[in-house]
Amino acid sequence: MSEGTSNPTEVSPRMREFQTEVDSLKVSGGKANPERNGMIAGAVLMVAAVVVAIVAYSTTHSSTNTADWADGAALGTIAIVLGIVGSTLFFAFGLRRYLRYWLIRLIYEIRGNE
Fold first, then answer.
1. What residue ranges do the domains of the chain occupy?
2. Other C-beta atoms within 10 Å of 86: how many?
3. Tens of pLDDT along 54-93?
4. Distances (CA, A) of 68 to 26, 57, 72, 77, 81
5. pLDDT score for 8
6. 3 state SS of 65
7. Distance (Å, rounded) from C-alpha 13 to C-alpha 108?
8. What is the CB neighbour count within 10 angstroms for residue 37?
9. What burial class does residue 49 get, using C-beta atoms within 10 Å of its C-beta: 0-12 exposed, 13-18 middle, 19+ buried?
């Protein structure tokens, strides 16, 4: 071990200051985590879209009745809408979580340079 390296368990003064500032905010993580809940909802909607699309395909594929084809087309449209809404939710909440982390980091860095 070289002389210039520090002990990995040792916390820098700046990190301690950051931790005390975060603790002074008195913000709890709480059970309400909108990013995680939104990403889960988006994933569930995408899976539901696949299931509805499979049902729509099986409905139209096994019948010669035009009423069944119309039902299958309606189910297919619902599957497309579910897929779009689910992927949008998943992407938006994932991006929101990522950008929140970088915003906090940027604010802390700016305050450290003052």
1. 33-113
2. 20
3. 999 988 887 888 888 888 899 999 999 999 999 999 999 9
4. 58, 11, 6, 14, 20
5. 57
6. coil
7. 14
8. 13
9. buried
Amino acid at 26: K
| Cα maximum dimension of the chain | 82
Q: What is the pLDDT of residue 26?
A: 64
- C-alpha span between 57 and 6 (Å, rounded): 62
| Beta carbons within 8 Å of 11's beta carbon, 6+ residues apart | 19
Provide, rounded to the nearest whole percent, the portion of the chain with pLDDT above 70.
85
What lies within 8 Å, CB to CB, of 23 at 6+ separation is: none
CA distance 114 to 98: 25
Whose structure tokens read 């950051």?
Answer: 18
Tell me the pLDDT tens digit for each residue of 32-43: 678 889 999 999
Q: Which residue is associated with the tokens 């990403």? A: 39
Radius of gyration of the chain (CA): 25
Model confidence, pTM: 0.64
